From TrEMBL, chains A, B:
Residues 13-111 form the HTH hxlR-type domain. This is Transcriptional regulator. The keyword Transferase does not apply. It holds the Pfam family HxlR. The lineage of its organism: Bacteria, Bacillati, Actinomycetota, Actinomycetes, Micrococcales. The keyword Transcription regulation applies. Keywords: DNA-binding, Transcription, Transcription regulation.
Length: 121, 121
DNA sequence: CCGAATCCTGCGCGATACTG
DNA sequence: CAGTATCGCGCAGGATTCGG
């Protein structure tokens, strides 16, 4: 063994792969919105304020592709589609919830630090 | 009170603010790299594989501005600068570590689901 | 109601070159 | 070693329009 105790962030490490996947503006918010149970397309777009139809569709497709969300089409007219977290998707709720808690606790301080810094410049 | 149990993701909620802040390719990796203790600029750029000088500087400045990282200049030649997590910055290690653990456990499955999905299309 | 397809723009970010 | 300055492209993603 070497004395290298730190495993560096290589380009293809799991952390990077996850970041590439959820590191956009909408994925985390959509997973959060689905946390309470299945939602229809329209309900989702209302809960995630400001998301465009295109990005909502695109993000949901990606989540479905990765096995984190299921898409269920009820063949009726008008069409009804429901999205729901899979088992795997639900395992993300914990880590994401921790981030959410951090945000509620610390973001005020961060914003204050930012203002103070700007004044000092 | 209303029967509205869900607090929607308004444009300025803490979650969104945090996401706007750490939702880029480098911030999370840099905080992770600083988790073991202070590091110099050059050490950081070696640990975070692929980060450009520009993005490393830029991200570190933003972290300093938000009170998550301190920058210490040792006036000697050649110059020596060390970056270190602040108390507030260290409180992020928990939530970020949880995400990291998730990635190590589940990303393989996600990648597999993705491949399966692509084949089925 | 739920999407797909197209067009168009901003700016994130990498590459490169230069300072103290 | 640790930055700053400038240029330029790629592409995420918003607006809009059309289909089932």
């Amino acid at each position: 063994m070497t004395d290298q105790s730190w495993d560096p962030y290589e380009r293809d490490c799991p952390t990077r792969q996850l970041l590439d996947r959820i590191g956009d503006r909408w994925t985390v918010l959509i997973i959060g919105a689905l946390g309470d149970g299945p939602l229809r397309f329209g309900e989702l777009s209302r809960r995630v304020d400001g998301v465009s139809q295109k990005m909502l569709t695109q993000t949901l497709r990606a989540l479905e592709r990765d096995g984190l969300v299921t898409r269920t089409l009820y063949p009726q007219v008008p069409p009804r589609v429901e999205y729901e977290l899979t088992q795997a998707g639900r395992t993300l709720q914990g880590p994401l919830g921790a981030l959410d808690d951090w945000a509620r606790t610390h973001m005020v301080g961060v914003l204050a630090a930012r203002e103070a810094y700007d004044l000092s410049v």
